[in-house]
Amino acid sequence: MEDKDLAQAISAHLQSLGPYIKACDIINFLNCPNIHAKYGLKKSICEQTAHKWMKKMGYRWSVDPKGQYVNGHEHEDVVNYQQNVFLPGWASAERYMRTYTCAGEEEPSSNGRHTVVWFHDESTFYAHDR
After folding, report:
1. Strand partners, 100
2. What is the DSSP letter of 65?
3. Cα dihedral across residues 53, 56, 58, 59: positive or negative
4. What is the dihedral of CA 31, 34, 35, 40, to 10 degrees?
């Protein structure tokens, strides 16, 4: 790992594999004949050495959490709905909502009627949900 060019090549290779990598991926990368020739390697490394190299490079072992909810708030159809339907509707209803000053005093409404907004979170959490 003292060779910075080799370390960068290994890092680039691991990043190209995606989020799920293992020490054997370094071994397989180093076993390529063109990598041996390019960096002047004489033999491969063992799995334990690959583990040490990964740790030195900042990788860590972790378990991917299962059963986590992903709401997809960045999908194109969701963004379109938020920008063109929800936010304009909220802005039109906002003038009828109660507003408060910085001191916490309620500002008077223009028509005397108020729209009350109730927020409801339907998330369910259990013990040990990570």
Report:
1. 106
2. P
3. positive
4. 110
In one letter, which amino acid is 91?
A
Q: Identify whether the C-beta of residue 27 lies closer than 8 Å to the C-beta of residue 44.
A: yes
Q: What is the DSSP string of 58-113?
A: T----PPPSS-----TTSHHHHHHIIIIIHHHHHHHHTTB--B-TTSPBPPPSSS-
pLDDT tens-digit profile, the chain (130 residues):
678 888 899 999 998 988 888 899 999 999 988 988 888 888 889 999 999 988 888 888 777 666 666 677 788 888 999 999 999 998 888 888 888 888 888 887 767 777 888 877 777 666 666 6
Q: Which amino acid is at 127?
A: A
Rg of the chain on CA atoms, in Å: 28
Amino acid (one-letter) located at 51 = H
Asked if residues 26 and 53 have their Cβ atoms less than 8 Å apart, the reply is yes
Torsion of CA 75, 78, 80, 84, to 10 degrees: -160
> Can you read off the two tokens belonging to residue 31?
């076993």
Nearest alpha carbon to residue 23 among 69, 62, 55:
55
